[in-house]
Design brief:
Elements lengths: L2 E5 L2 E4 L4 E8 L7 E7 L6 E6 L6 E3 L7 E6 L4 E6 L8 E8 L16 E2 L3 E6 L1
Parallel strand pairs: 2-11
Antiparallel strand pairs: 1-3, 3-8, 4-5, 4-9, 5-6, 7-8, 9-10, 9-11
């Protein structure tokens, strides 16, 4: 059974940093491309960032470029999201997601691309 479990969320003041982790089990992690999505209250789910299977390529939404960094440790079956210079508008539930497919520029930001999802982790940024 595939499981993705996020951790590391919480409350942070604007300008601060948080690191989210997503631990995977029940799959061969180095064959899975990973992404982070987020959903703020009353808003649609938004793609944040993606990383290819071996971590060679990374992609970011414009809203987080230069502030967020995605990385992975395939030996630990874990993907990370380092979030720096947090803003109140970063407040959302953050989800990690995985797919056995190769990432394509036309689809990596679409939720339907991903077969596996975590349960979500709340991140709240106060002003």
């Amino acid at each position: 059974q595939v499981q993705l479990v996020e951790s590391g969320g919480g409350l942070m003041q604007a300008g601060g940093s948080l690191r989210l982790s997503c631990a995977a089990s029940g799959l061969t992690f180095n064959t899975i491309s990973m992404s982070w999505f987020r959903q703020a209250p009353g808003k649609e789910r938004e793609w944040v960032t993606a990383i290819t299977r071996l971590g060679f390529n990374k992609y970011y939404a414009d809203s987080v470029k230069g502030r967020f960094t995605i990385s992975r440790d395939n030996a630990k079956n874990t993907v990370y999201l380092q979030m720096n210079n947090l803003r109140p508008e970063d407040t959302a539930v953050y989800y990690c997601a995985g797919t056995e497919s190769f990432l394509k520029i036309t689809t990596y930001s679409l939720g339907g691309t991903y077969e596996y999802w975590g349960q979500g982790m709340q991140v709240t940024v106060s002003s």
